[in-house]
Every structure is written in structure tokens, then in C-alpha cells.
Design a protein that fits this description.
heterodimer, A: alpha/beta, 5-stranded parallel sheet, about 55% helix, elongated, B: alpha/beta, 8-stranded parallel sheet, 3-stranded mixed sheet, 15 helices, 21 strands, globular
């Protein structure tokens, strides 16, 4: 097995330390980094497909994403040197005020980061102003809000209102998700998109980033 | 009594400090995976209601080990709360096996049930979804008119005086008042002034829950309350505040937990272990007198799929066989009111739960997310089936056969279920009574279940 194949396998298995070691090793070899990135991307898609079919579960998906992020961190200087660094977009995400639940947001973060997006994770219990300030400070493209309770869903509409109030509504896309949420509600509160799960959330982000 | 309330307060301030991510990913997740292997616990899709005592006992042993070794994380103090095996055993020994809940002629025994117990389940009716504010009293009346209702967790309000009820905002306090007072009014109007409430679902914050404790117009000591926690094995100061208030006010505390299939617990095996372990968290950390279980599917948000029915059956049996704790099983269906699928899902959940030793908390339709889409009819169906299953002394093997037949009728529609109708379409809102068309549907499907082997008492 080649070192690239070993590295890809370590990422798929979620072996963070082994992946870091192998990534450092490939830096010393005459490797086609463009091909390596494509191979790692395919590996993450394969883990994602398995998770979507529930052939693997969240812990395995998080392990693979953590390993992938570690590899990217190690090889980033080489990618910059070769002009291969691809910036897909930056997403500020979190749970709204009063919501202490993070699992939906964590899954979405895992899927997006595994697919090359830069994430600013605000955690739980964030005011609308916190979301907006973080988006401005980090020059984000998208604000993603995950609400798990009906009493915290209004937090999404408040982010839209704060953006409007600051006159920056058109600079950020606001998307929402979470167990009690649905499309008609998202339309009503003025969000730019809604997805029923993290995988469709990735498709939504890809769509919004193209527009 | 509350189990050593003061010790829990102390431990939550003195336990070892840890990052939340480390607790989840380095302690909880690997421990669950390790215990699944150690106890050789295996999901069997052919038997959504397994008749396997050894499996139930292994899940119990794994759950106790999980609770003892991993502890519970306080998100506010960033500390882990641990208990010794002696403390856990003392709490299990000293917990009552039944409670007299509600008041006067409406009081009922809410108690522990055994596997294949012939005593009917205690049935709490609840749609667990939001409704239009102007129809709230009508919906409360519709539920409270149900003869087999032992307790009610009312429909949920989304607005108060036209304002969105938002966690931590004063509108949440107002919404809570509206909820509690409407429920109390409805109970009196139908002639059940002492009926057991589990309230109030329109609020999340500790302040709002404490706000409605009042023996005259609000939530009484004879009622039930909830400490809800979804994130795996977490607590926080707001949850501990609720727990302390409920015990010091005198209400029956309920631990509301939902292990997520596909989430940190992994597959069906880990989900069953985690949901079983939540009983210890509820009993000891959140001081609760009963456990309300709603494990759910990460993608569908329901628990009527094949894997989740297995989870429901296994943890219910684990608790029923190894403890005398009081537990109920909270149904989450995929389809909406007025659809045949919702009745099939409701029946499967009620049968699997009842024969496995659980009480019932039924039924949240439409993956628990579509406004106004829930009626008392599906809860009535669950209650009538639960009573029938217990009275006829149905075995787990018989239940398994019927549940498999029911799954064959709906499991291919789980990913894209019919949303059905709203309460306002299925019911005459003024009279709080179902339209004849939907009653005809009810009796048609009841007859179908009778043909499958359910011996309804009436």
C-alpha cells in the first residue's frame, strides 16, 4: 500500500494521530498533491455516504472529519506553495439564545468541514447580535443556525432582523435547521434556506455559494 | 423524596473539570462502543420486540457501568459529576415503585410495570406540538374528554398575546401562565379538576417553569414536571434549578431524555444502553420520580422505525426487569393525523412499549414538527391498544409478530411520510369533537387491529 493510500485509509478510519504522522511523511515524498486532495475528498464523500445510509454513525463521521482537518493543517503550506489551496467558503454556526443543544450543529459542522468549508463554531446559547458580529468579524459567507426547541426557533428571525437593522442583510446568507424546524417556517422568518438534515444542508450551502 | 439533593449541588461544583468536547468524544462515545462489545449486545432487525431476558439484563449492566464510569457533565461549571456504586444502589433501593398523582377522584396510581405485566399502562396523552393560540382551549378540552386519559401533557403554545414565545423572554413567562391556566380551566370544564398534569411544555427556561407553581391556578404539587435534557449525558444549572424547585415545591419530577439513534450513541445497541442509563441520570442527578423516554432517529426524528422499536422494547425491558423505577414511553410518529399510517405507527409503538413494561406517553405525529398536526384520536388508539395488550396478557413473541405486520404496512414510507390533516380539519373546534369521517377511519383501523389479534376490552 502506498503512503497516499495509507493516509487515505487513516482518514477514513478516523485515526487522527496516524493521519498526522502519514501526512508529515508524504510531505517528504514526491507526491502529486492535487491528486492527493481529490483522493481525500473522495474518501470523505465515501464516509459521508455511509453515514447517510447509517452504515456508520456520528462518532465515525466526526473521527474522519477530525483526521481530515489535521491532514489539511499539515499539508496546507505545501498547497499554498503549489497554488492548490481552495477556499470554498466560511460558515458561522451555532445554536440560538436559550438553546443548549449542539448535536445537529455538530453534525453539520462535521459534514461541511469534511467538504472543505471553514467553520466558525459559536457553540450554544448565542444572541442574534453574537451571530451577526461573528459573521462580520470573520468575513463569513453564511450564518447557519440550528434550533432544537420551538421556544428557540424565533432566534433565527432575530438574526435576519439584526442583519437588516445593520444594513448588511445582503452580505450574508442565513440558513436554518433543527428537529422542530421546517421549510414554511424558514420562509416566514426570512431565512435564505432550510434543510431537513446535514447532508441536504451541504447541498444547500453549495447552491448558495454558487449564487 | 429527592435523592440527596444537596450532594448533587455540591458535586456539580466540585467534580473534576473537563472540556465538553473531551467529555463527549474521549469518554462517553468510546465507553458506549466498548460496552456494546464487552456485553456482546446485538441488534436483531427480525425481532423489533425481542423476547430475550438475557439481552435486557446485559443492557442494564452496561448502562449502570456507563453511568458510573462516565458520569454526567455540567455545562455551566465544566465539571463532571460522578457517583459511587453504593450511592447508585442506595438511590435505586430507596426510589418508590409507584406514586399517587393528581387529586381527589381524579387521582391515579402511576407505577412501575413488569415485562408482560397484565396491569394496564398509565397513559399520559400529549401531542407534543404547537397549536394556534386561539384554539388552545379547544384542543385542551378535546384531550381532556378522553376516557382513558390518566394524565395530560398539554398541547404546546407558540404565541402569547400574539407574541412568539421565546426562551428567556418575558413572553415565555406569559405563555407559561396562559398554558397552565387554560389547562386548569379545561380540566374543570370537563369535570376532571384534579387530573394529573405534566406541565408546562410551552416553556424551557427554569424561570418560566418556576413561575407557574401555584396550587390554586397553576401547577400543583400533585402534578408532574419535566427536566428535559437532549444533549448526551449533560446537565446545566438551569436543569438543576428546575430539579431542585420541583422537589422543594413538592411536584413529581420527570426526567425527559431522548438518546439519538445514529448520533453519539451510535447504532441501536448504543442507543438502548444510553437510554437505559438516562434512568440513573434522571433518578440521581435530576431527582426525578419518573422517567420519560423518547429515543429518536437522527434523520427522521421519530421512534416508530424498526431500529427504534427495538431500542424502545430493549431499554423498557432492561428497566422493568432490573429496577422498580417508574418509566413511560413517549411515541414520535412520522405520519400526520387522519392518515392510516399514523394509526399503524401508533399501534406498533404502543404494543412494543406495553409488553416491554413501560407506561405510555402518546402520541407526537408528523416527526414532532408540524404546527396544529396532532389530535387526541391517535393517543386514544394507543391507550385502547395498551389496555388491550396488558389485559389479554400478550407475550413478547405475539407482540413481535403483530409489530412486524404493522411495520410492513408503513416502513417504506418513513422517509417521506404523509403529513395528513390539522386538528382544525379533523375536529369540530367549537365542540372539541372529531368529525364523523375521521371517527369512521378510527373504527375501521381498530377493526383491522382486532383482526390481527388485539382483544379490545370495548
Amino acid at each position: 500500500m502506498s503512503s497516499v493510500e495509507k493516509l487515505t485509509q487513516a482518514v477514513m478510519n478516523g485515526e487522527v494521530e496516524e493521519a498526522e504522522k502519514l501526512a508529515n511523511a508524504v510531505l517528504e515524498e514526491d507526491v502529486d498533491f492535487k491528486a492527493l486532495i481529490e483522493k481525500l475528498g473522495d474518501a470523505m464523500s465515501e464516509v459521508g455516504d455511509k453515514f447517510e445510509k447509517f452504515e456508520v454513525f456520528l462518532p465515525e463521521m466526526i473521527g474522519a472529519a477530525d483526521a481530515m482537518m489535521k491532514v489539511m493543517e499539515v499539508i496546507q503550506p505545501k498547497l499554498q506553495e503549489q497554488g492548490l489551496e481552495e477556499k470554498k467558503g466560511k460558515v458561522v454556526m451555532g445554536a440560538p439564545a436559550g438553546d443548549m443543544h449542539e448535536i445537529g450543529k455538530d453534525i453539520f459542522k462535521t459534514i461541511l468541514s469534511g467538504n472543505g468549508y471553514e467553520i466558525v463554531d459559536l457553540g450554544y446559547d448565542n444572541s442574534a447580535l453574537t451571530f451577526v458580529n461573528a459573521a462580520v468579524e470573520n468575513k463569513a459567507d453564511i450564518i447557519a443556525i440550528s434550533a432544537l426547541m420551538t421556544t428557540t426557533m424565533p432566534g433565527v428571525g432575530e438574526v435576519v432582523e439584526v442583519l437588516q437593522n445593520k444594513g448588511v442583510r445582503d452580505q450574508y446568507k442565513v440558513i436554518a435547521g433543527g428537529a422542530p424546524t421546517y421549510q414554511e417556517w424558514a420562509d416566514e422568518v426570512g431565512a435564505d434556506g432550510w434543510a431537513p438534515d446535514a447532508f441536504q444542508g451541504l447541498q444547500l450551502v453549495e447552491r448558495l455559494m454558487k449564487n | 423524596m429527592a435523592y440527596r439533593l444537596w450532594q448533587v449541588m455540591e458535586k456539580s461544583k466540585t467534580g473534576p473539570i473537563m472540556e465538553e468536547k473531551e467529555f463527549l468524544q474521549k469518554h462517553l462515545v468510546p465507553k458506549i462502543a466498548e460496552l456494546v462489545k464487552k456485553y456482546n449486545i446485538k441488534y436483531d432487525p427480525k425481532n423489533p420486540v425481542p423476547a430475550d431476558d438475557e439481552l435486557a439484563d446485559k443492557v442494564w449492566a452496561a448502562a449502570k457501568e456507563l453511568f458510573l464510569e462516565v458520569g454526567v457533565y455540567n455545562q455551566d461549571t465544566n465539571r463532571v459529576i460522578y457517583f459511587t456504586e453504593d450511592e447508585v444502589n442506595e438511590a435505586l433501593y430507596s426510589a418508590p415503585s409507584e406514586h399517587l398523582v393528581g387529586e381527589g377522584k381524579d387521582a391515579r396510581i402511576f407505577g412501575h410495570r413488569k415485562v408482560e405485566d397484565e396491569r394496564p399502562p398509565f397513559v399520559i396523552y400529549s401531542p407534543d406540538i404547537t397549536y394556534d393560540e386561539q384554539d388552545f382551549l379547544s384542543i385542551c378540552l378535546a384531550y381532556l374528554k378522553e376516557p382513558l386519559l390518566d394524565g395530560i401533557c398539554a398541547p404546546v403554545l407558540e404565541q402569547y398575546m400574539g407574541m412568539k414565545i421565546t426562551s428567556g423572554h418575558p413572553a415565555e413567562l406569559g405563555g407559561c401562565l396562559h398554558h397552565a391556566m387554560s389547562l386548569r380551566e379545561a380540566a374543570r370544564l370537563v369535570g376532571r379538576p384534579g387530573v394529573f398534569f405534566v406541565a408546562v411544555g410551552s416553556a424551557e427556561s427554569d424561570a418560566a417553569q418556576i413561575h407557574v407553581s401555584d396550587p390554586a391556578w397553576g401547577i400543583r404539587p400533585s402534578d408532574g414536571r419535566l427536566v428535559g435534557s437532549i444533549t448526551e449525558f449533560m446537565t446545566n444549572n438551569a436543569m438543576l434549578n428546575k430539579a431542585a424547585h420541583y422537589q422543594q415545591y413538592g411536584s413529581f419530577g420527570g426526567s425527559l431524555t431522548g438518546a439519538i439513534f445514529g448520533g453519539y450513541a451510535g447504532g441501536a445497541e448504543g442507543t438502548a444502553i444510553l437510554e437505559t442509563a438516562y434512568h440513573l441520570k434522571g433518578l440521581i442527578v435530576h431527582q426525578c420520580q419518573y422517567q420519560q423516554n423518547f429515543p429518536f432517529h437522527l434523520k427522521h426524528g421519530s421512534n416508530t422505525t424498526r431500529e427504534l422499536l427495538w431500542v424502545v422494547s430493549v431499554y423498557s425491558q432492561a428497566i422493568a426487569r432490573n429496577t422498580h423505577l417508574v418509566q413511560d414511553s413517549n411515541g414520535f410518529a412520522n405520519a400526520g393525523p387522519g392518515t392510516d399510517m399514523l394509526y399503524y405507527e401508533s399501534a406498533a409503538h404502543s404494543i412494543a412499549s406495553t409488553v416491554s413494561g413501560a407506561n405510555l406517553w402518546e402520541m407526537a405525529p408528523c416527526q414532532n414538527k408540524h404546527h396544529n398536526r396532532g389530535t387526541p384520536l391517535e393517543a386514544r388508539f394507543c391507550a385502547e391498544i395498551g389496555h388491550a395488550v396488558a389485559r389479554q396478557k400478550m407475550s413478547r413473541e405475539e407482540a413481535n409478530e403483530i409489530v412486524n405486520k404493522l411495520l410492513a404496512k408503513y416502513e417504506d414510507q418513513v422517509a417521506d411520510p404523509p403529513l395528513g390533516k390539522t386538528y382544525q380539519e379533523v375536529y369540530d373546534v367549537l365542540r372539541s369533537e372529531p368529525h364523523q369521517e375521521y371517527l369512521d377511519q378510527y373504527y375501521r383501523i381498530k377493526e383491522e387491529l382486532a383482526q390481527m389479534g388485539i382483544k379490545f376490552p370495548f
